[in-house]
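This week, study the protein below.
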Amino acid sequence: MKRKLKSKFIIIICLLSLDSLQAQVFPNYAEREMFGIKDSTIFAQLLSLSSEGALDANEYKVGPGDLLFISISGIDEKNFSVNIDPEGFLYIPRIGVLDLRNKTLAEAKNIIRQRLLKSFKDVDIHISLNSYRKIKVSLIGNIKSPSTYVLSSSSRLLDLFVISSGLTTTSDIRNILITSKDGSSKKFDLLRFLRLGDYSQNPYLNDGDIVRIDKVEKTISLFGQIKFIGNYEFKEGETFDEILQIARGLSFKARKDSIEIIRFTEDGKSQYSLFYSYEQIQKEKIKIQNRDFIIVREIPDYFDVQYVQLNGEIKYPGVYKIKKDETTLSQIINEAGGFKEKASLKDAILYRTKADSTYDPELERLRLIPRADMTDDEYDYLKARSRQKRGRVVVDFEKLFDQKDYSEDVVLKIGDIISIPEKKEYISIIGQVVNPGNISYKSGLTIEDYVNIAGGFSWRAKENDVRVIRANTGEWVEADEVAELKPGDTIWVPEDPPGPKFWEVFTTSLQVLGQVAAIVAATVAVIVATR
């Protein structure tokens, strides 16, 4: 009883957890997939050697291990290559010790220059960073494998993520907290750098920095005519204009006069809509809230290219512009120069790419049922629906263009494809004949005539089960029901399946006899034992 109660309790907990997972919205933009590699050691070595170009002296902080080059040019030239010591001080021979702790490279250069000018007059002074030091940085929080990494002091925040083991589905990279050795902290939005190239959100890392990744709990969602739709981490104090910048703005088909914001009430139990123009959003700096949904709809009928495509035996095949709800099939064929001499109007097809895609539950059900379990009506329905060419518009091209019956002249729709195949002046014969293949069509020849031309039946042919597959419909017809063959028809001669091979029969018989013998032996043993 206790086990049953325990099992029920576990099931309930699992179901509740599943519901909470389904209700939670996670960030899903593409940049999240770029992090995490297998061999972080190799990439750390590459990062230590790589450079992004000129160093930003106003942002880079010097520290223990950095090697500085100092050149003093005057009557005599003096050059120094000096290291910052482990305590953050720089010693220059015959000049003295300078305190460079927690100084940027620009500040350090200024301190060194001012000190040198006290000892040297009328000289040119050049100071540069000769080589980087190594730093140790910790990446912790909601990531796959929290760890400490050794990097070059020129490394930025993104470099740390590149060599890390990667993010989880709930990692928040828009609210990254970096805590320095002195206890000061600051938040950074790495996505803003990835999307907008904002270097202020991809800072240089310093020795001892702790980079903390939080778990996403608050999100916003963007839908519709926005360049980068998806779910994003919520950032406190961010405006709609700023998040639309992150999403790279609106698409050219966006309707800008009524952007909808669906927002939850304070109790989080119901929603309401707000509408703003894009101009308002840019000017008024409206702040976003947790779980806001931003929807930008499309301008109707805006830049919709109205075209159809013509393939095959057309004088000038290709793509043609149409007028919505006006251009007909005959008009577009005339515009394309008409048919070529070998065009087969009987086999011509008008295919509608924007066809009805209504789900057919009966067809899906029958596809899962073995033939033996179907009624004849169910099997006929399955065959008919499976043979149906979705999107095909029924048009009699011969009536329309040969007999000028304009009741067949349909109005074309955007994306329609008109395919005009070449005339099939042959009959195809497949299956169990001596020489299967295509045979030139001749009016009046029967199925038997074509079989003889193909060398006759092969020794495995089912001669009494020959069928004809009609070219224009794909219908299978019994041979004795075909009054006349038409160009493009296919004659199919099925194979008579062979009987079982002797060795298979022999081995099966031995297995059966062995089982019978075992049963008989067991029965005899039981009878003897009872006596």
Notes: DSSP finds 13 helices and 25 strands in the chain. The mean pLDDT is 84. Residues 502-530 form the longest helix (29 residues). The two ends are 48 Å apart (CA to CA).
